[in-house]
Design brief:
single chain; globular; 6-stranded parallel beta sheet; alpha/beta; about 300 residues; two-stranded antiparallel ribbon
């Protein structure tokens, strides 16, 4: 894929693979929404600013918009459709339970999930995964949307601004979630496909950390946005590069590192969780997909409460 050539000057270094991943994601996002109408404005809150067509909002997905990780929910849905075996499900379940209880991403878990997903979808048609993604959203994701974060996104839409998801999840799944939530579109990890069939490779790297910032930078340049007037929302310190790009960064359900960073820089902070609710949410979800993973999650939760 040729470089798009519309990146603005960077204030920090980025790997070539991060830039490629970001450009590919921005290109995919714009293609999927080029014919969509701009949402009608309703009301004029102080922020977001009504009618500011050079402003937009960028929302991380996992643990920001939705409880848990989209990639793991997607894995559960693929298992139900016999895309892989029980031992793989147990690994997905354990990773999801760990993520829900710990409240932040483990890089090894994320890479393992990514590699597993790529091997699973290799040889399948893109159109097939999009169709399955619609079903998986209804089965595992719809009830896990945080109402508070959804309301924040709606405030931007009501002000006439575009709202984008930014996630390491596959772009096809991210676009399904964005559409079902009534958002503008999504930036996500782009898997290579030839003739509409997945090759099992990525374009660049997963849209994670610095790659997210590159995707936002590329999309902003293509859309004529002023990043100092834009907002970004995330729960993870891994997204500090993305949050630092915009004039209105928000820490939502933050992990400890992001919470500390947000307080030091006086960023806005909102938390829609409680400790008790987090434990209740994590354990049953894991138990529903595998007894071994559920038991492990329960043991971790018990240990945490005793500390």
């Amino acid at each position: 894929m040729a470089a798009l050539g519309w990146l603005t000057p960077r204030r920090r270094s980025a790997t070539a693979r991060s830039v490629l991943a970001g450009e590919a994601s921005a290109e995919a996002a714009r293609k999927s929404t080029q014919d969509l109408p701009v949402p009608d404005a309703a009301g004029e809150p102080d922020f977001p600013v009504h009618g500011d067509d050079r402003a937009a909002a960028f929302f991380d997905l996992d643990n920001t918009v939705m409880q848990g990780a989209a990639l793991f929910h997607f894995g559960r849905g693929l298992y139900k459709r016999k895309f892989f075996e029980t031992r793989d499900l147990a690994r997905f379940a354990w990773q999801q339970a760990w993520f829900r209880l710990a409240g932040f991403e483990d890089p090894e878990h994320m890479q393992d999930a990514r590699d597993s997903a790529l091997s699973i979808v290799k040889g399948h048609r893109v159109s097939e995964l999009k169709s399955i993604g619609e079903e998986i959203y209804d089965e595992y994701m719809a009830e896990r949307i945080w109402p508070g974060t959804r309301a924040l996104a709606q405030a931007h839409l009501d002000a006439g601004q575009k709202v984008w998801l930014v996630t390491a999840a596959p772009v096809e799944i991210a676009q399904v979630i964005a559409r079902r939530l009534g958002l503008t579109g999504a930036l996500g990890t782009v898997a290579e496909s030839i003739g509409g069939v997945y090759t099992g490779k990525l374009v660049g790297e997963p849209l994670h950390g610095p790659a997210k910032a590159e995707a936002v930078r590329a999309l902003a340049a293509a859309e004529g946005l002023d990043l100092t007037r834009c907002a970004a929302y995330s729960d993870s310190h891994n997204d500090i590069p993305m949050l630092s790009l915009v004039g209105h960064p928000y820490a939502i359900n933050p992990d400890s590192k992001l919470r500390r960073h947000a307080r030091e820089l006086d960023w806005r902070l909102r938390d829609y969780r409680t400790g008790r609710k987090a434990a209740k949410v994590g354990i049953p979800a894991a138990a529903g997909v595998g007894a071994v993973a559920g038991g492990t999650a329960a043991a971790i939760a018990l240990h945490r409460r005793r500390r």
